[in-house]
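Hi V.,

You were right to ask for the full record rather than a summary. Here it is.
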Amino acid sequence: MGEIRVNVTVRNPAEPDRQWEGEFLVDTGAYHCLVPRKHLEAIGIEPDGAQVCELADGSPMRFDKALARIELMGDYAGATVLFADDDDVTPLLGVVAIEGLALEVDPVNQQLRRLPALHL
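Predicted structure:
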């Protein structure tokens, strides 16, 4: 299976005019979104907590976290964003944001697809 990349807008929920847009790797193995710290701080999003996550190699790593508005495909959802201290890290779109946006991964066509309806 190849990679799916999408353009995502991250917006400061307290100041919606402040935003950053970037290309994100769709990562169904990631729970939260991962964004370089410099972009989150540039739009006024500051950490309000921390989360320990398990990396792909199994090692734990602590990340600062905050809430952000994640927008793509004409819709938005509130989601936790983790602050990546490495400026060169590829931003990740995690499964919580994907599901919050009522999207599913289409691995055959390598794209995100809107669900026809959400389960309550």
